[in-house]
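Complex record, two chains
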Amino acid sequence: MADKIRIKNLCKTFVEKSGETKVLDNISLDVKENEFLVLLGPGQCGKTVLLNILAGLDTPTSGTINYIKGNENGKEDIKEMKMGEIGMVFQKYALFPWKTVIENVEMSQKLKGIDKEQRRKSARNYIKLVGLENFEDSYPKQLSGGMKQRVGIARAYASESDILLMDEPFGALDAQTRYQMGEEILKMWRKDKRTVIFVTNNIEEAIYLGDRIILLSGCPATVKAEYIPKLERPRDYMALEFLQLRKEIADNTDLAL
Amino acid sequence: MKTNILKNKFYLGLSALSVLLLLLAWTYVSISGGGLIPTPFETFKRFIELLYKPVANGTIFIHLLVSLKRVIIAFLIASFAGIFLGVMLGWNKRFNAFFGPIFEILRPIPPIAWIPLVILWFGIGETPKVVIVFIGSFVPIVLNTFSGIKMIDSLLISAGKVLGANERQLLWDVAMPASLPAILAGMKTALGSGWMCVLAAEMVVAKQGVGFLIVRGMESGDSSLIIVCMIVIGLVSALITFSLTKFERKMCPWQTR
């Protein structure tokens, strides 16, 4: 598979009155086209900062990020990403409370000035993808946590970006819903493949979802190891290989299981 | 179910009892007070009389309309100006740095304290009343709009940016709707304060209006006129609050539904 994003020597240091805090230390990694990449790391490390930088919400202190648009005759077409070209799913949903489900989902296309009929049609498509057909006109407040995050995922998909960033999207959900959403997101991704970068601090979730797992160290975050689960999907949490990989990762990290 | 209905009837009965007791106490005090205080019946008679018999070339209805007109004109101007200033103060750091201090200095002055100066400047026509009401309703609108904009969840701003909103769209499609509940709350406070200010202004100098009428009652020793005015003023206040709450629900359906 071709590379989609190439991150080179990325560093981020926050400068405050109390001193400097380094959160990202020399992060280099390639993200392949249409792969489901999981960034696994402990709570307070710079995973969210890394995603924010990728989304354009923050700037790196040093290092580069290249987005590879296409590959023609062995020559890569590298381009600048503009805001609105990358989809993002937030841990705390970040839905607009004054907008209904469908209005939330169509937001990016509305901001781009696409006419109402067309963006509604596309939004309905993505709402169907996440299985919320009957809730188009509900307000976020009326939905459960899992449903809210489905809206968040549909909204990210509807930005028609080929890169989706997910910042611990199931972190605020209860365990039961969390398992269910993991299954669902893989289903959606199979139906409509995009390059996904999924951040989590849950080892099981990482192994269940990832084509590839990048293990990050604590603060400042560095790339510690890479794992490629050789397991058929849907993966079985109780399979021997699953448990072995879980132990291997757990032994290599200070994450609690 | 049945006990619930019974309970509700009981509470309703209690409320009716308290009003009845108040009327009884009022009657008792007025009879034993030797004519200083009119009885509820005399007050009601005076009210009916005021409906068709003009005092100072107007029935009570005309005086009420005059007062309301002043409030509404000033309130509308204050709403436009106040929302504009509040948004600018909350959204634009430079604007806030420049105009913020002036507003902070003028803000704590009670609007009624402006009456003498405003009368000196604008005379005794309609303008000074409108100006006083404007001062009284402008401040709460600015303050609420400002804090509404300031307290927007930064996550929503991030979500807007990621979805591709430019600066103008961030303001109009994210910040404004996000702070609409706060703005409406400010307008509610403003209308109440404006209603108070108009009475004060009319009490100082006016030829028409409920504030004028109540002072006329004092000057002519007509205490039933004063009491009628007080009750009407209270009812109008309650009506204003009630209709604005309705309006608020209509404008922000996501808050209640």
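Note: The longest helix of chain B spans residues 167-204.
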